[in-house]
């Protein structure tokens, strides 16, 4: 199955959080009742209730386009409650899809990932911890970065037991890489961090990283937060458990 991922970042306008959450609930309900190709539609907010991330996965172009069409009626309500938006796509987007979206989403090609990644949110446990890591790669270091990225993936494949998704995407010019991650619980996250730590360390010599983590602030997550430059977002709603 070809999966397309979308990460939407929404800045919530001051005093508009209640209005925003109402419109978000409507969007989720439409997704539940009308979408057939939406694998994940997970919403998270920061403690200040000023920023929201939506982590989305679709079964190919048809699934994404169907969702866009179904969600259109409530889209204007959401936009009235936000002050800024950023929407990025990940995966192999066909020219037909790009044209249909009229440039609204720019896609980053897939580099690598787990052979048996669990992508459907309803197949992931309620304890799932998700993360989006963004690497800004130093000029001319793209090929070296790819080599160390392959080491990170191999460590996850051979050593991890609770890593559900570990999907890597890289810009065509080799200047940026985004990793979409999911772990079944805090213990799985700590295991992954231990198994791949030295390989990630090599990547950090070639790049700068920012990390957003999406989970309730359980002790295991807080332990990781102390060691890394992470922004934490708590779950608002979604198709998952």
Structural commentary:
There is one protein chain. With 241 residues, this protein is of the alpha+beta class. Helix content is 38%, strand content 34%. The protein has six helices and eleven strands. It has an eleven-stranded mixed beta sheet with strand order 5-4-1-3-2-11-10-7-9-8-6, sandwiched between helices. The model has no long low-confidence stretch (mean pLDDT 93).
Defining traits:
single chain, 241 residues, 6 helices, 11 strands
Short account of what is shown:
The chain has 241 residues and is an alpha+beta fold. 38% of the residues lie in helices and 34% in strands.
Helix amount, in percent?
A: 25-40%
| Strand/helix succession | EHEEHEHEEEHEEHEHE
Radius of gyration: 17 Å
| Shape estimate | globular
Give the strand order, joined by hyphens, for the main sheet.
5-4-1-3-2-11-10-7-9-8-6
Mean pLDDT: 93
Beta-strand content: 25-35%
N/C terminus separation: 22 Å
In this structure, how is the largest beta sheet organized?
Answer: 11 strands, mixed
Low-confidence stretches: none
Count the DSSP helices.
6
What's the β-strand tally?
11
Structural class of the secondary structure composition? alpha+beta
How are the secondary structure elements laid out?
Layout: E1 3-12, H1 17-34, E2 38-45, E3 51-59, H2 60-80, E4 82-90, H3 95-101, E5 106-108, E6 110-112, E7 129-137, H4 142-159, E8 163-170, E9 176-183, H5 186-204, E10 207-214, H6 219-227, E11 230-237
Parallel strand pairs: 4-5, 10-11
Antiparallel strand pairs: 1-3, 1-4, 2-3, 2-11, 6-8, 7-9, 7-10, 8-9
Helix pairs in contact: 1-2, 4-5, 5-6
């Amino acid at each position: 199955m070809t999966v397309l991922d979308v990460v939407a970042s929404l800045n919530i306008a001051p005093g508009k959080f209640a209005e925003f959450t109402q419109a978000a609930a409507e969007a989720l309900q439409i997704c539940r009742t009308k979408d057939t190709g939406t694998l994940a539609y997970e919403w998270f907010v920061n403690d200040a209730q000023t920023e929201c991330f939506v982590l989305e996965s679709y079964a190919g172009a048809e699934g994404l386009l169907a969702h866009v069409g179904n969600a259109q009626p409530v889209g204007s309500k959401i936009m009235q409650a936000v002050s800024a938006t950023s929407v990025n796509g990940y995966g192999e987007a066909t020219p037909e899809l790009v044209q249909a979206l009229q440039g609204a989403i720019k896609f980053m090609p897939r580099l690598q990932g787990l052979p048996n990644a669990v992508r459907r949110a309803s197949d992931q446990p309620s304890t799932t911890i998700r993360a989006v890591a963004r690497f800004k790669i130093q000029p001319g270091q793209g090929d070296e970065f790819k080599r160390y990225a392959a080491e990170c993936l191999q460590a996850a494949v051979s050593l991890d037991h609770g890593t559900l998704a570990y999907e890597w995407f890289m810009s065509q010019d080799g200047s940026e890489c985004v990793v979409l991650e999911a772990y079944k619980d805090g213990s799985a996250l700590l295991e992954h961090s231990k198994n791949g730590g030295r390989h990630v360390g090599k990547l950090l010599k070639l790049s700068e990283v920012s990390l957003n983590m999406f989970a309730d602030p359980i002790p295991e997550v807080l332990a990781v937060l102390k060691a890394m430059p992470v922004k934490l977002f708590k779950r608002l709603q979604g198709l998952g458990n």
